[in-house]
């Protein structure tokens, strides 16, 4: 499990392509991968991956074709920055909200609005997933636990303070960029339960 509190930005060192999977070699900041062992889970842009080996501060991860297809990991190239979070341990503070590291869908950044003390990012999700997006609700974007601001159809925004921009890859976000989305599990459960009970039908 993860908390959605991004622990830093790592960099794609190189990618090795093989039939059926890509091996991502990711260089982490000094001091952030101490006591990591083979088999440990790390969220890379919100996607739970397993460490296959380690060379100093470079960790290696295998991503299958299905993972590359369903997430933005297939878009990555050498030198790209990624958000990372090591798996939570029992007793850790939950500063965001609980995440599984399983990506539900992707969204596109459709607008970036700069103001004096923050940046507002607008995202567009596939229509099938918009039913889980509510103003003031939780959502994970590239592994970061964020609070939804406004919702308009299948678009929503988040407001980011300078510290979030500094500590994550959102500081270099650009319009047209795809991001990974993990819907809040409690929200999904409630919406799906109400739908099964028929409460998603329009009033007559």
UniProtKB/TrEMBL annotation:
> Which EC numbers characterise this protein's activity in its record?
2.5.1.9
The record's GO molecular-function terms, alphabetically, read: riboflavin synthase activity
Supply the alphabetized keyword list: Repeat, Riboflavin biosynthesis, Transferase
UniProt GO BP: riboflavin biosynthetic process
Per the record, the pathway is: Cofactor biosynthesis; riboflavin biosynthesis; riboflavin from 2-hydroxy-3-oxobutyl phosphate and 5-amino-6-(D-ribitylamino)uracil: step 2/2
Q: Where in the numbering of this chain does the Lumazine-binding domain appear?
A: 1-97, 98-194
Which PANTHER family is this protein grouped with?
RIBOFLAVIN SYNTHASE, RIBOFLAVIN SYNTHASE ALPHA CHAIN
What is the name listed in the Swiss-Prot or TrEMBL entry for this protein? Riboflavin synthase
Q: What is the lineage of its organism?
A: Bacteria, Pseudomonadati, Pseudomonadota, Gammaproteobacteria, Pseudomonadales
């Amino acid at each position: 499990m993860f908390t959605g509190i991004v622990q830093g930005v790592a960099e794609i060192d190189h990618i090795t392509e093989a039939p059926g999977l890509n091996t991502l070699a990711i260089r982490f900041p000094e001091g952030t991968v101490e006591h990591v062992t083979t088999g440990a889970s790390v969220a890379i842009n919100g996607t739970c991956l397993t460490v296959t080996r380690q060379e100093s501060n470079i960790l290696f991860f295998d991503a299958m074709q299905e993972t590359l297809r369903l997430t933005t990991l297939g878009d990555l190239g050498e030198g790209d920055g990624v958000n990372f979070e090591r798996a939570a341990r029992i007793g850790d503070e939950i500063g965001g909200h609980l995440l599984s590291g399983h990506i539900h869908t992707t969204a596109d950044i459709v607008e970036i609005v700069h103001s004096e003390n923050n940046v507002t990012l607008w995202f567009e999700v596939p229509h099938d997933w918009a039913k889980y997006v509510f103003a003031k609700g939780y959502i994970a974007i590239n592994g970061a636990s964020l609070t939804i601001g406004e919702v308009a159809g299948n678009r929503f925004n988040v407001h980011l303070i300078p510290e979030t921009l500094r500590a994550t890859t959102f500081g270099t976000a650009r319009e047209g960029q795809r991001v990974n989305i993990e819907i809040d599990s409690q929200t999904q459960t409630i919406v799906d339960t109400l739908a099964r009970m028929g409460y998603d039908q329009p009033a007559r």
